UniProtKB/TrEMBL annotation:
Keyword hit for DNA-binding: yes
Protein name stated in the entry: HxlR family transcriptional regulator
Record-linked Gene3D superfamilies: Winged helix-like DNA-binding domain superfamily/Winged helix DNA-binding domain
A Pfam family that the UniProt record links to this protein: HxlR
GO molecular function: DNA binding
Native source species: Methylovirgula ligni
Domain of life: Bacteria
Domain HTH hxlR-type: 9-108
InterPro entries membership: HTH_HxlR, WH-like_DNA-bd_sf, WH_DNA-bd_sf
Length: 113
């Protein structure tokens, strides 16, 4: 996907790559923990549906932000890692963390009913 916002703007182009729900949190986990398997990502993201996680991983891989290494052939299972392009988002993730700690410290996770 390119320029889903129909704007000639670098921020809009960046959001086309990493702006879908869960994408930045996937990148957060890969940045903080290093390469992870699907089930590790799923456990760390508590609440993401497997089909959604799979779709986000495919999108991030297609955009060259993450890579996947086969670690088991039958059935095929992959370990995901940041590419150089993904690692370049590190300062962005840190800036988001800093902003959240400063401006959104009291925002609580939604409560289950």
């Amino acid at each position: 996907m390119r320029n889903g916002y129909a704007l000639d703007c670098p921020i809009a182009h960046t959001l086309d790559v990493v702006g879908e729900k869960w994408s930045l949190l996937i990148l957060r986990d890969l940045t903080l923990k290093g390469p992870l398997r699907f089930q590790d990502l799923e456990a760390g993201l508590g609440g993401v549906a497997p089909n959604t996680l799979s779709a986000r991983l495919k999108t991030l891989e297609a955009q060259g932000v993450i890579g996947a290494r086969l670690y088991e052939a039958h059935p095929p299972r992959y370990e995901y890692f940041l590419t150089a392009k993904g690692q370049a988002l590190g300062p962005v993730l840190q800036a988001l963390r800093n902003w959240g700690e400063h401006y959104a410290p009291d925002v609580a996770a939604p409560q289950s009913r």
